[in-house]
Amino acid sequence: MNRQAIPGAFGVLTEPATLTIERLLPGPIERIWSYLTESDMRRKWLASGSMQQRPDTSFTLTWRNDELSDPPGKRPEGFSEEHSMESRVIEIDKPRKLVFTFGQGEVTITLAPQGKDVLLKLVHTRLPERAVMLKVAAGWHAHLDVLVARASDKDPEPFWDHWLELKDEYDKRIPA
After folding, report:
1. Would you say 118 and 130 are in contact if contact means Cβ atoms under 8 Å apart?
2. Measured between alpha carbons, how far is 124 from 141 in angstroms, rounded to an integer?
3. Model pTM above 0.85
4. Containing structural domain, residue 39
5. What is the CA radius of gyration of the chain?
6. CATH of the domain at 101
């Protein structure tokens, strides 16, 4: 297992505008797939929103990050209680690959069995500028840490406090 598969490991820029981050999760793969594609499961770690599991269908992701942990921590200035974004499924290969639009970019999530565990690899492309990269890197990292906790039947740490710490750390790691 490479270092990035370790829960809590940092994402890396694999190209100038592409973030790659991995997590090792307890299987089976079908359960982790449900965390990606079913609104009620996805809202536990990322954002709610019904998704048709077929290409070229749109869906809305709705974040309520204050609900991801108890306590949620102090929400940073400029963030609202709820945020929504329109997305579109580009490719889907149940239960191994999901590709969807994310703002100006695109997110590819692949799942691969690793014994009883599942390796999740997330690649977010076309990140427009460093300020956005910092928020996105900290966001995916924090959200995936919540997923690891939820999939492991553990309570996640306060979301916003963790996100703020991660944003500071990514500021040191992502080149200016």
Report:
1. no
2. 12
3. yes
4. 3-173
5. 15
6. 3.30.530.20
Residues in the chain: 176
> What is the count of structural domains for the chain?
1
For residue 163, what are its two tokens? 């996100």
What is the identity of the amino acid at 92?
A: I
pLDDT tens figures, 38-58: 999 999 999 999 999 999 999
- Identify whether the C-beta of residue 101 lies closer than 8 Å to the C-beta of residue 90: yes
Cβ contact 58:86 at 8 Å: yes
**Spatial CB neighbours of 135, under 8 Å, sequence gap ≥ 6:** 167
Joined tokens for residue 39: 């609104």
Q: Per-residue confidence at 1, pLDDT binned at 50, 70, 90?
A: very low
The beta-strand segments (E) located in 40-142 are: 58-63, 83-93, 97-102, 105-114, 117-125
